[in-house]
Inverse folding.
């Protein structure tokens, strides 16, 4: 193993040698509580003290989850249809199939938890029957992978999955992990009521997930792994061995880890699976920059970093505390990232395929809360606690699977963080500079005022939008000059048609269009000569390299927050060839009015307005271009429309000052 761990987890190499790792896992597996034991950090449902005693889940949540699950038993289970699965390849729609699919897995998660929480022994058989139905439905599902990821179409031209060659993707890992958490929680009770169900689960998880995962790797002596891939096998991009690791690496390896710990009964295989999944987590952590920044944006922290943190918590438990990542600098940096981009209670600084609203979907805030405690990051703890609230939804996050829901229910510190209604307000960083992504955030010392966010970077980033040099401005924590963010994913989103989608283009980001040009696609197109100034309150950068061709001789953009945070100034200075019009665009969210003296923006929330004025040493004309929003994600962020303020000049050289003032 010493040769396969080269990242932040390299110090674990000795503990991951087959003999020692097997001993660690065996020791943890024999030290459980009532009703058996589990290598997963959840007490079995047979431990009634853990599930119904004063130290168990909070009563309001337990009562609500049980009541909801009872009510749903009379309803038919959601039924994903093959014709909808095929639509991804026929017309690009992935939502028609995913909507009932996610509804099914969400109902299953609630059913499993409700069976553990069920206070009435006479109702427990019905609760277990509901779980059994969910287990069998999942095991009989023709594929666990999501249609956008399955490779049968690429390999064979099929629009349906190839059951003889299952694709291990996010969806397959999620189902395997859900069944593993179910077995750890209810396995004994289910087997007593329905003999053979545990064998069914193990067979399906082995065939669809564990066997394909192990088959990718060359095995070394005595079951040790040497990190090489088996030659001539199809490559999974998320392995991080013949390409960069990314959020899938953490997400899938974490789910493989959970499935192996709960469902693999062969000790040698279990050890191999745990070791290789841990090596995958190491590869993910190795590509995280020192500042902990996620180039995919805030939303994807939850789909990569948070998944990795959850998996590291499982490893900590399964190894009896020997494999403990809490002291690693990269982990501390990851934990800090969410609160560094916070704009206010409801919004975060957003770029790439991220969403700007904090609670656009349920988040497993307990993960951030727990790791904030482990690494002593009070700001992370405060941010998570502010979203704990008093309601049930804050704990019940079925959209994130049983791997999030069960730890949230059984973490006593997280349970006790509730009831304050978010009284502890999260810390708002005044100055943030993330050099790896070239993102700067500057704000005043209070929540009131303007927050400036400037992004450099390049156009080859993960989930990239053409946004080099983007300047966004929030007023009292609410974005007014905005990055539109993500829309609903389709077949075009991750294809060669990606940059035909308007919300991804530079034309609809707050960046210039020199001589009408849009930015180029790829890492070669990026910011140059980037400088932080004004004590971290400003950033200047050369944008000429973000545009293809030789006509952009120079474009220097400088942005800074002034005074007590009531004014932002952005200076654009350029030297161009040609005579086509040049546009400096500002994408505005809210009500916008244009007059001879400037523009006024009333953001989508808040009481004050943002005034936009400009002056230049060349002639500039101003106009508004509204854009109606029809996509659900974009409407949830900004309402019915966004508006682009276009400042247009034709001069070959010029200097434009745009000022944003809080009113």
């Amino acid at each position: 193993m010493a040769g396969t761990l080269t990242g932040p987890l390299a110090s674990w190499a000795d503990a991951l040698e087959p003999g020692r790792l097997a001993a660690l896992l065996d020791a943890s597996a024999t030290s459980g509580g009532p009703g058996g034991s589990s290598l997963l950090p959840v007490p079995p449902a047979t431990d009634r003290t853990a599930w119904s005693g004063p130290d168990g889940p909070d009563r309001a949540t337990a009562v609500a989850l049980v009541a909801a699950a009872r009510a749903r038993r009379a309803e038919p289970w959601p039924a994903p249809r093959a014709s909808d699965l095929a639509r991804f390849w026929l017309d690009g729609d992935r939502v028609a199939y995913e909507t009932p699919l996610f509804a099914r897995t969400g109902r299953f998660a609630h059913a499993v938890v409700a069976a553990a929480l069920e206070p009435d022994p006479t109702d427990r058989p019905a609760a277990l029957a509901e779980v059994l139905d969910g287990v069998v439905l999942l095991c009989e599902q023709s594929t666990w992978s999501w249609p956008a990821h399955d490779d049968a179409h690429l390999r064979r031209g099929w629009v349906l999955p190839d059951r003889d060659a299952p694709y291990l993707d996010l969806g397959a890992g999620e189902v395997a992990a859900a069944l593993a958490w179910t077995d750890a929680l209810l396995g004994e009770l289910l087997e007593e009521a329905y003999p053979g169900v545990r064998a069914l689960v193990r067979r399906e998880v082995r065939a669809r997930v564990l066997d394909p995962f192990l088959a990718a790797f060359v095995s070394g002596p005595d079951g040790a792994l040497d990190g090489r891939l088996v030659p001539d096998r199809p490559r999974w991009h998320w392995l991080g061995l013949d390409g960069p690791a990314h959020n899938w690496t953490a997400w899938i390896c974490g789910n493989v880890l959970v499935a192996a710990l709960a469902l693999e009964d062969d000790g040698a295989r279990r050890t191999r699976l745990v070791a290789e999944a841990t090596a995958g987590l190491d590869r993910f952590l190795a590509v995280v920059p020192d500042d902990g920044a996620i180039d995919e944006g805030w939303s994807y922290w939850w789909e990569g970093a948070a998944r990795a943190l959850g998996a590291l918590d499982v490893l900590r438990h399964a190894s009896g505390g020997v494999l403990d990542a809490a002291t690693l600098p990269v982990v501390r940096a990851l934990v800090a990232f969410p609160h560094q981009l916070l704009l206010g209670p409801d919004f975060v600084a957003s770029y790439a395929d991220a969403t700007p609203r904090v609670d656009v979907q349920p988040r497993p805030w307990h993960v951030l809360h727990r790791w904030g405690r482990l690494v002593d990051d009070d700001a992370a703890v405060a941010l998570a606690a502010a979203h704990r609230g008093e309601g049930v939804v804050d704990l019940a996050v079925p959209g994130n699977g049983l791997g999030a829901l069960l730890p949230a229910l059984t973490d006593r510190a997280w349970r006790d963080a509730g009831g304050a209604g978010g009284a502890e307000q999260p810390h708002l960083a005044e100055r943030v500079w993330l050099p790896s992504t070239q993102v700067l955030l500057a704000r005043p010392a209070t929540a009131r005022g303007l927050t400036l966010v400037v992004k450099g970077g390049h156009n080859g980033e993960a989930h990239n939008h053409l946004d080099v040099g983007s300047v966004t401005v929030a007023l009292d924590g609410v974005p007014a000059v905005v990055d539109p963010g993500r829309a609903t994913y389709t077949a075009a989103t991750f294809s060669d048609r990606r940059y035909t989608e308007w919300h991804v283009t530079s034309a609809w980001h707050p960046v210039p269009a020199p001589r009408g040009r849009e930015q180029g696609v790829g890492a070669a197109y990026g910011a140059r000569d980037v400088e932080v100034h004004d004590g971290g309150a400003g950033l200047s950068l050369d944008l000429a390299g973000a545009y293809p061709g030789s006509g952009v001789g120079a474009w220097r953009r400088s942005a800074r927050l002034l005074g007590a945070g009531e004014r932002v100034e952005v200076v654009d200075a350029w030297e161009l060839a040609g005579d086509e019009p040049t546009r400096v665009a500002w994408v505005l969210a809210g009500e916008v009015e244009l007059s001879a003296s400037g523009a006024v923006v009333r953001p989508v929330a808040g009481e004050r307005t943002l005034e936009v004025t400009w002056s230049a040493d060349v002639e500039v004309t101003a106009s508004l271009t509204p854009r109606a929003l029809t996509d659900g994600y974009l409407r949830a962020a900004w309402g019915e429309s966004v508006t682009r303020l276009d400042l247009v000049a034709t001069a070959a050289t010029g200097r434009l000052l745009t000022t944003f003032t809080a009113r």
About this structure: The longest strand covers residues 552-562.
